[in-house]
Amino acid sequence: MTATKVPPVIEIRDPALDGAEIARRVQQQVERRRAEGRYDPDLSRRGPPSLRPDRPLPAEPSVMAEFPGLRESLAELVAHSRLHEPAFASNAPLIGPLIVAVRRAWNWMSTKWYVRPILAQQSEVNERTASALGDLAQWHEMDSRDLRRLEAQVAALEARLARLENKEEP
Amino acid sequence: MRIHQMHSGFIPGDAISNHILEIDTRLRAWGFETAIYARYIAPEMADRARPDHEYLPYLHATEDLLIYHYGIYSPAVRYFQATKGRRVLIYHNITPARYFRGWDREQELLCAVGRRTLGSLTDCDLALGDSEFNRQELLAAGFDADRSGVLPIFLTQARFESLPLNRPLLDRLRAGNKVNILTVGRIAPNKALEDVIRIFAVYHRAINPNSRLLLVGSRYLPRYNAALDALVADLGLEEAVTFTGLVSDTDLKTYYRAADLYLHASRHEGFCVPLLEGMYFGLPILARNAGAVPETLGRAGVLFNRLGYEQVAEMAHLLISDPDLRAQVVARQRERLQDFAPARVENRLRGVLAELGLLAQDWK
Questions:
Q1: Reduced to 3 states, what is the DSSP secondary structure of residue B253?
Q2: What secondary structure does DSSP assign to A21-42, as a single string?
């Protein structure tokens, strides 16, 4: 197996500069000050854990877990997507049935040719929207699963990189 | 015919907004009727841009050209998709969403959706990255290599030249001969400002206590801000580290003028305008080798490939204290800056318009 070559910390691309000499001067200073105990050996561990160089990436929560009511909301949306005409009723004594009959007749006259087709159209739009939202949520759920898997890989690679970075230059 | 430019936000001091204005100035000079649209328009820019819904009447104007600047998701991307005329996408890069995870859910989602949407914008006349790095991301998203190119960002040198310095601020920054280390950009996790602070901690505590770190840029992520403040406090650097927040162009120029070194640790950049600004102001640049940074620097500046805090801090010290090395690095940077000279970017823009048949091919 070929060992991975760790790149130098400092890289100078200007051919007019002596990169090797500059790196040597830098390293000389590092060693001198290190010998004098000038550097903080705990530097990487300073500050909140979320800013430490070897911190793992937080896991991506799933869409359904993140919005706990989402599954129920979608089910409710489907259940309520078809519009219903209200049933007429009246509590008036004696003439109540007459009021209901008149309202029904007026409603039949006024809604049959105009409002009902619109209700049907709106119900269809609602049902299709609810269905599309359900598909999207499911699609997002699958993506989230993929993301979690990929993130675990990235976290492992970043941890490996941090370990390599923490190895000082010879 | 008209040339429309659209972006999610139009904000003073923002690199993309400045780029849009520079393009607009050239287009007008070449005789085009132009308009700029944005979803968010800062009040001080209200006379230069219109709300994006005002573009609607031009959706079917087949002779027109829409240049869409893509740097984060915006619902306005639908206008680009629905446009029947010619369409050019300028991709300024979208930060990978994972950098915002745990810091800001909204930014994370905008970046995730923005990157995902990129693949649905491939059906355009031309797609441009402002760096080869960005162009490669376009190709990876499914854009056609033959209809792609690079148009670097205009460095608005003239803007800096005409600006005054903030003298009281300059005097404060130069008082006591303190060494000023500068970094410029949004205070965002992909910029890895914790690394900048740790590198500075080594410099300040082990090399030169008469020094100061200036972090210039908007602080828009409260959780990240709080974590950085905690790191600064834990390192005992409250007196030596300054977060300026968003500053005026005059103050920005003053910070550059007062600085001794430009330090950049970003893990992801699509171009990095502050590097050009650092070159322009004659600051030696020490930057992480990540994203488009090595491309923007070319052979100029000094890169660090990984975190050896001590080595990077000692390199910073050399760049600050060795006048010969500093002069050589700055000279190479000035040479590199010529590759981004406004005249060159302008020529490239004319080339783009010629490719689209909007300007004569013999414009040279």
A1: helix
A2: HHHHHHHHHHHHHHHTT-S-TT
State how far the alpha carbon of B238 is from the alpha carbons of B201, B229, B242, B252, B298, in Å: 11, 8, 8, 22, 35
Is B304 within 8 Å of A168 when comparing Cβ atoms? no
Task: State the DSSP string of B152-175.
Answer: PPPP-HHHHHHPPP-HHHHHHHHG
User: A11 φ, ψ to 5°?
Assistant: -130, 125
Exposed, middle or buried by CB within 10 Å (0-12, 13-18, 19+), for A110?
exposed
Phi, psi of B184 (to 5 degrees): -125, 140
Pairing of the two strands B86-91 and B65-70? parallel
Put simply, whether A146 touches B (Cβ < 8 Å) is no
Residue B244 has phi, psi (to 5 degrees) of -85, -20
Question: Which of A8, A46, A168 lies nearest to residue B235, judging by beta carbons?
Answer: A46
Residue A13 lies in a domain: no
The verdict on residue A86 lying in a domain is: yes
Please answer whether residues B49 and B36 qualify as being in contact, where contact means their C-beta atoms are separated by less than 8 angstroms.
Answer: yes
* Structural domains of chain B, ranges and CATH numbers in brackets: 2-151 (3.40.50.2000), 162-339 (3.40.50.2000)
Contact A15/B303, CB-based, under 8 Å? no
Would you call B42 helix, strand, or coil by DSSP?
coil
Neighbour-count burial of B48, counting CB atoms closer than 10 A to its CB (0-12 exposed, 13-18 middle, 19+ buried): middle
Residue A158 within a domain: yes
**Overall number of domains in chain A:** 1
Structure tokens at A110: 């006024």
On whether residue A99 sits in a domain, the answer given is yes
Q: Residue ranges of the alpha helices (H) in chain A?
A: 19-35, 63-66, 70-79, 96-111, 115-166
pTM of the full structure: 0.79
Distance in angstroms (rounded) separating the CA atoms of residues B296 and B270: 9
Domain that holds residue A145: 60-166
The phi and psi torsions of B2 (rounded to 5 degrees) equal -115, 150
Instruction: Report residue A42 as tokens.
Output: 């705990």
Average pLDDT for runs of 10 along chain B of length 364: 95 90 96 96 94 94 96 89 95 93 86 86 95 97 96 85 95 96 96 97 98 96 97 97 95 97 96 96 97 97 95 98 98 96 94 89 52
CB contact (8 A) between residue A11 and residue B302: yes
Q: Which residues pair with B286 in a beta bridge?
A: B263, B302
